[in-house]
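Allow me, if you will, to draw on your knowledge of protein folds for a short while. I have a record of one protein: its chain in single-letter code and its fold written as discrete structure tokens. Could you please explain, in whatever detail you think fit, how the structure tokens follow from the sequence? The record follows directly beneath this note:
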Amino acid sequence: MWKSTDNFIGVIVVVLLTVGSIATGSTIYITGMITWIIVLIISKGRLPIKVTHFPYFPLFVYGIIISIFAAILNSFDMRNLIIGIINLSNPVLFLSIGAVLTLVCPKKNFLKYVIFSGLFVAIFQLYLLARNISTADSINSLRMSMLATPDIIPITLILLMYRKTLKIDINTLITKIAFIITVASFVASFSRTLILQLVIYILVFSIDRRFIKKNIAVYLTIMLGAITAYFFFINNSFGDAFIEKIIKSSTEVSSDNDWNQLTTILNNWRGYEVYSANVQFNINGMFDKIFGEGLASQIYVGPYAIYVGVNGMSIPYLHNSYYTILIKLGYIGLIYYISFLGINFFFYLKRSHHNTGYLLVIAIIAILAVNSKLMQGVVVMGHDAVLLIVLGYLSIYRDIQQENSIKV
């Protein structure tokens, strides 16, 4: 028997955030559904009136409506439509979970749960590294044997570095141990995306003059870490390969390569996806360009789809979610999604001086914008779940304290 509801909620949150970092998309989504139901029961059916200042939900509704019209006008695959709806509902689910948690979980506890989950994921990542590094013959094979992009690692580092600023009550010794383990996992991940995310967090916290002294300490820590990483990577095969991947990053996502050779396509797959999406979009009629082809539509990439594990000639979504939205929901859907990111970013930026938690909010929004360019983004089942939960929680926490909720 649980000592209190708080303990039970803590376990639920830690399990959700951990699963959201290590499991597959479908498992993360199902876990999210179960968590949403449990938390809603604990909150006695209460739901926040809104999640984020500028809502995402209308985009989801629009996607369903335009998909119905597209289904009436054209033949479609029911399975693709259902999966498309689930994918687009991903932010609705996880933002809502974060919002409902504000009703039952104090902020000081919630941020502790994030740190604890991040520490667990970091330890698991180091375990995977130790188990596979001796048999890995390249950095790609090593990366494939580890967690893909655990978004919780950078946010855990930031929470630990700014724990006093964010009023997180954690023992100093535990903080130091957790920080060392999380940093080790961060370096061992060999992830360009995680590096970029950490840079975004640090840059956002740098805009607030209240944290000048703290930021200096953070910068010195980063410099020390960079020097350590340099000596680790130098004359190291994995290090050389990782540096080469960083150098080639812009080429990988560019759609301006010569796509007549298979090696070019495979080495720069993300760029080829965008190229294929552009070709498909340009041959569409004006209706499809404006309103979209619907959520059941796919992007034609030819016989190369098999190289990314997809049977057939088309793929359901791209690593660039802006183009995924453009194809499926047209100019209207893309403009709304960009508005969702942009309006919320500037809204919380203006208010960050009065609420330190909003610094995390605007950093997460910026990261979601970047992930939408470089990865599948939030419009894929289970993706960016941790970021969405934290965003849903911190973006409305102050309003919820003023009883800004309804009962269902």
Notes: The longest helix spans residues 321-351. The chain has 20 helices and four strands.
